[in-house]
Design goal:
alpha/beta; 6 strands; binds guanosine-5'-diphosphate; nucleotide-binding
Length: 172
Amino acid sequence: KRKLTVCVIGSGGVGKSSLTLRYINGHFPEFYDPTIEESYITQIEYGFHFHEVEVIDTAGQEEFLLFRDSSMAQGDAFLLVFAIDSVSSWVHLKELRSKIVREKDDDVSIPMVVVGNKRDLEEDRQIPLEDVVEYCQRIKCPLIETSAKTSLNVTESFRMLMEQVEEHRLNL
Ligand code: GDP
Ligand code: MG
């Protein structure tokens, strides 16, 4: 397989489409259909070369489909997104991560990055950063806090994921 597939997953409303469009188009989207799953082909640099990457902005079908029928089955690497002001999205992220690891034959080294989005809403934070750090250390997964709104760390989150991809390849 030549093309790498990145899946952006997480609860509805956490900002998956906003992060993806911010990354792909460089601006915070105002109008888009939140129910449609979109995928984008882009070039991302890792391992000293640019590679063709497909980014799938999932839209919640994951809940209702068998894993193998969902776009998660296509994912080589995952941005696991929650919103720092949403407890349910944090609970859901941990479930999604377990599901992926289980479905990928308990391969805990699958490239993933935990993304705490809506960092601009710090005053509404419901998930203490220490809790997220503790979880990420336990599962050995990098963590980044982003804001699709202000564009904080959006490019960086994809870059971190590509580092994981590169590391995973080296470990094969
Ligand atoms: P998705 O369902 O995960 O794709 O989430 P969307 O990208 O559709 O975003 C859901 C809502 O959260 C929209 O109203 C966005 O404008 C808003 N949103 C997304 N990212 C951010 C962010 O970083 N900060 C703030 N304040 N709002 C955001
Ligand atoms: Mg969306």
